[in-house]
Amino acid sequence: MGRLVVVSNRVTLPDESRAGGLAIALRAALAERGGLWFGWSGTCVRQASGAMHEYVDGDIRYAVMDLSRQDFDDYYNGFANRTLWPLLHFRMDLVDYTRKTYAGYLRVNALFADRLASELRPDDLVWVHDYHLIPLAQRLRERGVGNRIGFFLHVPMPSSDLLAALPHHRELFAALSSYDLVGFQTPRDLERFQDYVRLFGGGRVIGDGLMETADGRRFRGGAFPIGIDVPTIADQAVKAMNRLPVRRLQESLGGRALAIGVDRLDYSKGLPERFRAFERHLERHPNQGGRITFLQIAPPSRSDVPEYRKLRRELETLSGHINSGHAVPDWTPVRYVNRDFPHDVLTGFYRIARIALVTPMRDGMNLVAKEYVAAQDPENPGVLVLSRFAGAAQELHGALQVNPYDLDGVADAIARAHAMPLAERYARWRGMMDRIEAYDIHAWRRDFLRTLQATPATVSPAASAG
Ligand SMILES: O=P(O)(O)OC[C@H]1O[C@H](O[C@H]2O[C@H](CO)[C@@H](O)[C@H](O)[C@H]2O)[C@H](O)[C@@H](O)[C@@H]1O
Ligand SMILES: O=c1ccn([C@@H]2O[C@H](COP(=O)(O)OP(=O)(O)O)[C@@H](O)[C@H]2O)c(=O)[nH]1
């Protein structure tokens, strides 16, 4: 079997800790098999983009590229995170499209292809990740790369009518056909993409995941829900109980139940709605008032993008408003923490939380939901309150599933979670644990790569060049 080459915008270098499910998942996937991880260095430079840096950690080699401030602004802050991110999360109202940022996105993809092409060996299996790099395979094919190349979309695929509202949508999404396999988080995401291919892409859906473009090129699609490393997280959670930040949090609760939320500060995560739903819980269930403390961990994310800065201000106001209306001298209902925690400390926080609030308005998967389940004490598991619009809802049927737009419904789910007897908590948790153990991060990686390797040669013809 050839070498695995993983390509993503976000790379977690050795000893680096960074919030974000993609980087955490890819590190776990590469740890098992080794290979090359290629992507952005995380650094913006004054000079032109393109300088490469290399690091080696065990079986993983990292090759990362610097970007100039201009390229970073156009490609990452601009087209990736002000155009594609809102579009793919069904937020047309926030889409900001300019030809300038689109040109920057294409320019950076071409540069990734230039640098990557010279690294590749003929039998490498190339696996590209996420919306930052949709055109990458097409650019690689133009440079004569004939390797099997797979693509995985970590975020949702929205309705085809929304995709079709994007200027140049056909050029952009047709580029996906240069991949041999395009993976989505859920079957529903795949279906929506196939609708797009049929209705707006000028192609056809042949069946069994196979699609054909207007000019007869065939490629495959599939659903591969991303998982986590369950035993590692369960083990981290047990050990974290002795760590100072976890002990201090536990002591600070004074016997009250903890409800926890852990999310990048992103408008897709439904944080203002969650804060309001918690306030609604205090109003609708006064008998539980004062018995649950809500801790929201929300590390800042993409702070150069105006919508993210606005959200930060909104949450500061909202948490202050809820606390001023409901706090008593010995209890503050909302603790809002704007910083990043190491992954293993988080697992301890999950373990002492009776309730997890995972209520995004849209989310590709949401690994926090799965991590919360893996970190629970089997003798006394907590309850997951989960938005039905997270990809994880397709698998975690034991969660209390909610509609995050229905604040009363979320408020009542919090109350139900708080009052839930142990036998029901255990039964729900066990079913979710069985699922995340059966299809974990390693199963996800193997399933995707096996499918990519098994894609018939006719589906990945050298003819797809150009
Ligand atoms: O790299 P950033 O801009 O700092 O953002 C962090 C990552 O956010 C998104 O994560 C997604 O991937 C997760 C794992 O599959 C999934 O659970 C979650 O639902 C997605 O939102 C983004 O897609 C990544 O590219 C970013 O690295
Ligand atoms: O302070 C933090 C906050 C989050 N995370 C991790 O960041 C990831 C978030 O992934 P998720 O899929 O939930 O959402 P994303 O941020 O990728 O959209 C999870 O593994 C979290 O444990 C972390 O390590 N430290």
UniProtKB/TrEMBL annotation:
<comment type="pathway">
    <text>Glycan biosynthesis; trehalose biosynthesis.</text>
</comment>
<keyword id="KW-0328">Glycosyltransferase</keyword>
<dbReference type="InterPro" id="IPR012766">
    <property type="entry name" value="Trehalose_OtsA"/>
</dbReference>
<protein>
    <recommendedName>
        <fullName>Trehalose-6-phosphate synthase</fullName>
        <ecNumber>2.4.1.15</ecNumber>
    </recommendedName>
</protein>
<dbReference type="GO" id="GO:0005992">
    <property type="term" value="P:trehalose biosynthetic process"/>
</dbReference>
<dbReference type="InterPro" id="IPR001830">
    <property type="entry name" value="Glyco_trans_20"/>
</dbReference>
<comment type="subunit">
    <text>Homotetramer.</text>
</comment>
<keyword id="KW-0808">Transferase</keyword>
<comment type="function">
    <text>Probably involved in the osmoprotection via the biosynthesis of trehalose. Catalyzes the transfer of glucose from UDP-alpha-D-glucose (UDP-Glc) to D-glucose 6-phosphate (Glc-6-P) to form trehalose-6-phosphate. Acts with retention of the anomeric configuration of the UDP-sugar donor.</text>
</comment>
<comment type="similarity">
    <text>Belongs to the glycosyltransferase 20 family.</text>
</comment>
<dbReference type="Pfam" id="PF00982">
    <property type="entry name" value="Glyco_transf_20"/>
</dbReference>
<dbReference type="GO" id="GO:0003825">
    <property type="term" value="F:alpha,alpha-trehalose-phosphate synthase (UDP-forming) activity"/>
</dbReference>
